[in-house]
């Protein structure tokens, strides 16, 4: 078994605090047992997300100094457009301030009331925007994707039979678009294969339906294709990306995860669609040459996208995650396997199997892990679902605590510290009790909801 190796060195650091356990307990109580409500000064390892917190390279920082700040016609826009075209082969680009802003624009332009959007799996903000425009999400992940422990290399694959049947059932005219999410977030950062994407693409073409790729977690998915898909083991990352892009009609991404620390982009080759979305960008985001991003971020993104084509860069996330997964597995801790992108996912349903789903096992475990180690993870289970129209609780398919490994941020010894604290908590898991809401917002309740021990 290989140890992951940092293919970079540290140049700028941020001091961390490790509070005594009594203070950690107080902090999480004040945060309503919700890790989103913790103050970062109280956190030792911030494993909440990989969004906006990946490390930047020296070249990205340098590029930020040469940004061309003009409202219209900026050189920065031209540079970013050129790199996007080189990498993805799509010549039309709309900038936006982050991923969900792209989702707003795509949904407003393409989703009509009563239409359907088949996808491998939903993401929270994606589904919310589709629903807001009167559309319904159809989740068509292959059954293997929902098995918590497995050897399946591509758990993000769509079930192609179910896609064909769904299109027949609702009628192709009622399908707004088909969406594939790279590095499928909510099932553990799991990739799809290029073979699967080809299948999806040809079904879309047969039916005249647009294929939209959410490329926010593209970097991890690219690396997994290179490492796990036999047919592409000798292809370069750039070739794999070009092939992937050639199968899609629209690509959008959150640049908070891909390439930079802020921003978003929508790419297409379809002039008519581009024109429909253009007006919405001007209305919601900003002029077409910045779309809510600062030119500095756009320059960093330009360099970051180029760096994403470097295997030494994109291996960092997946290799460190796989290492953490292996170490936890060796110690008997229930984790999602195989390791995906984004982070290491702990299976709370098993870790705290004495807590029923009605008492939010993943929320309880995320809270306990902060007390045990000053580690901030994210609940990805029933708290992250909202109630249905009748106010009934919707139990999530999986109860996960996501421990993100922002790219190139943590060292191996910090990862080992996390492994040690999680193992200790597992050995003392009976101490963890279930939770109940004391304040429960109606929309995206996981962000600001407050809970207490039941
Ligand atoms: N799509 C995917 C797959 C994402 O993971 C995210 C964000 C978005 C869209 C929305 O992008 O945050 O820039 O508006 N995921 C973050 C996370 C929030 O922590 O998983 P955004």
From TrEMBL:
InterPro entries linked to this entry: ArAA_b-elim_lyase/Thr_aldolase, Beta-eliminating_lyase, PyrdxlP-dep_Trfase, PyrdxlP-dep_Trfase_major, PyrdxlP-dep_Trfase_small
Cofactor or coenzyme needed: pyridoxal 5'-phosphate
Domain of life: Bacteria
Keywords: Lyase, Pyridoxal phosphate
SUPFAM superfamilies: PLP-dependent transferases
Name of the top EC class for this enzyme: lyase
Signal peptide annotation: none
Alphabetized Pfam families for the sequence: Beta_elim_lyase
EC numbers: 4.1.99.1
Residue span(s) of domain Aromatic amino acid beta-eliminating lyase/threonine aldolase: 46-417
GO MF entry, a single one: tryptophanase activity
Record family assignment: Belongs to the beta-eliminating lyase family.
Name of the protein this chain belongs to: Tryptophanase
Species of provenance: Youngiibacter multivorans
Upper taxonomic lineage: Bacteria, Bacillati, Bacillota, Clostridia, Eubacteriales
């Amino acid at each position: 078994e290989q140890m992951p190796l940092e293919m970079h060195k540290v140049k700028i650091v941020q001091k961390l605090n490790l509070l005594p356990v009594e203070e950690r307990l107080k902090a999480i109580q004040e945060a309503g047992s919700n890790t989103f409500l913790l103050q970062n000064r109280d956190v030792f390892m911030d494993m909440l997300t990989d969004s906006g917190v990946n490390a930047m390279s020296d070249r990205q920082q340098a590029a930020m100094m040469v940004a061309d700040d003009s409202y219209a016609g900026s050189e920065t826009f031209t540079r970013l457009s050129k790199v996007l075209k080189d990498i993805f082969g799509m010549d039309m680009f709309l900038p936006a301030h982050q991923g969900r802003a792209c989702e707003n624009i795509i949904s407003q332009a393409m989703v009509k009331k009563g239409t359907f959007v088949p996808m491998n799996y939903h993401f929270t903000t994606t589904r919310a925007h589709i629903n807001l425009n009167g559309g319904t999400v159809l989740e068509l992940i292959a059954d293997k994707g929902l098995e918590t422990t497995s050897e399946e290399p591509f758990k993000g694959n769509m079930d192609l039979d179910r896609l064909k049947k769904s299109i027949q059932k609702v009628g192709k005219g009622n399908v707004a678009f088909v969406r594939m999410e790279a590095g499928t977030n909510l099932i553990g950062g799991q990739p799809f294969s290029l073979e699967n994407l080809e299948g999806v693409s040809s079904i879309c073409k047969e039916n005249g339906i647009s294929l939209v790729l959410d490329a926010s977690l593209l970097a991890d998915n690219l690396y997994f294709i290179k490492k796990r898909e036999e047919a592409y083991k000798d292809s370069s990352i750039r070739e794999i990306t070009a092939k992937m892009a050639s199968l899609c009609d629209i690509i959008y991404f959150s640049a908070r995860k891909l390439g930079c620390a802020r921003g978003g982009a929508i790419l297409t080759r379809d002039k008519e669609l581009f024109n429909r979305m253009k007006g919405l960008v001007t209305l919601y985001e900003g002029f077409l040459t910045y779309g809510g991003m600062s030119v500095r971020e756009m320059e960093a993104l330009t360099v970051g996208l180029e760096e994403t084509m470097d295997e030494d860069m994109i291996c960092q996330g997946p290799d460190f995650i796989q290492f953490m997964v292996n170490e936890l597995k060796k110690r008997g801790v229930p984790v999602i396997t195989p390791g995906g992108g984004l982070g290491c996912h702990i299976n709370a349903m098993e870790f705290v199997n004495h807590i029923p789903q009605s008492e939010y096992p993943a929320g309880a475990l995320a809270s306990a892990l902060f007390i045990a180690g000053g580690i901030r993870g994210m609940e990805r289970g029933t708290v992250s679902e909202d109630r249905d129209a009748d106010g009934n609780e919707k139990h999530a398919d999986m109860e996960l605590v996501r421990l993100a490994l922002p790219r190139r941020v943590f060292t191996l010894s910090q990862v080992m510290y996390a492994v040690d604290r999680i193992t200790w908590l597992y050995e003392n898991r009976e101490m963890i009790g279930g939770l109940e809401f004391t304040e429960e917002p109606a929309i995206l309740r996981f962000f600001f909801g407050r809970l207490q021990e039941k």
